[in-house]
Description:
Blueprint: E1 5-9, E2 12-19, E3 26-31, H1 42-50, E4 53-59, H2 76-90, E5 94-98, H3 100-112, E6 117-121, H4 127-135, E7 150-153, E8 156-159, H5 160-169, H6 175-183, E9 189-192, H7 202-212, E10 221-223, H8 237-256
Parallel strand pairs: 3-4, 3-5, 5-6, 6-9, 9-10
Antiparallel strand pairs: 1-2, 2-4, 7-8
Helix pairs in contact: 2-3, 3-6, 6-7
Amino acid sequence: MHTPTQVPVGEGHLAVYRDRPPGGGRRCLLVPPYGLPAAALAPVAHALVDHGHEVIRFDGRDHVGAGSGTIADFRMSRVAVDCAELIERFQPSVVVAISLGARAALRALAETRSAADAVFVTPVVDVRNTLRAVLDRDWFEVPTAEVPELVPVLDHDIRADQFLRDCEAHGLVEPAGTVIDLQHTGGRVTLIPGSHDPWVDRAMVERIVSQATTADDPTRFDVRVQAADSHALHEDAELAMRMISAALDAVRTLADGTRRAS
């Protein structure tokens, strides 16, 4: 992978990579899931480039990869700020985000009021429920004095109380906040959940979209359920290819300005 460009944000920096097709193309911001660096998204980026898109991918602050800080200090609000910085800097036409990255990207799109479309793959729409499914405990209900300094989350130790309080302070815990953020986006949004994803409830995704949909624009949000019984795309090549294909199809649909027939 080519050498990244450092983009300063706050007291730290992002490591930004650009993948360009010959002659340029519609610009796409690719947002990683929790725990994976930009390098792991190379297959997705290359597939988008092959379909004529310029791709911006990045390692954020306090995450894995070449951004500043360490993942122990991972906070959702910082991911949202990182996304907002890149949205404003590069003005993408579409944002593609995966898993927990989708929730942060959604907040960034809502706060910047960007007109960019979005495709969210295995999107976390209920942070409380997803964390409970992953960790087998609702840490938001645990008194602060009882929260250990570090909690292992998918192979990485996180400063738990800092993460939890950050989510609460920025309204990133409950589905109601997801509904509000969807309503404040400026473009069209396609969400691609797995049919039996153990960490993201497909019915909750559909319910949130239904609540966010308004009568004056009933087709702005689209849900495309894919057959899946896992959330970990990086551990299942067949599932990853199916989700990537669905994302590419959704990006093409948005670029064409069309919607699937109901």
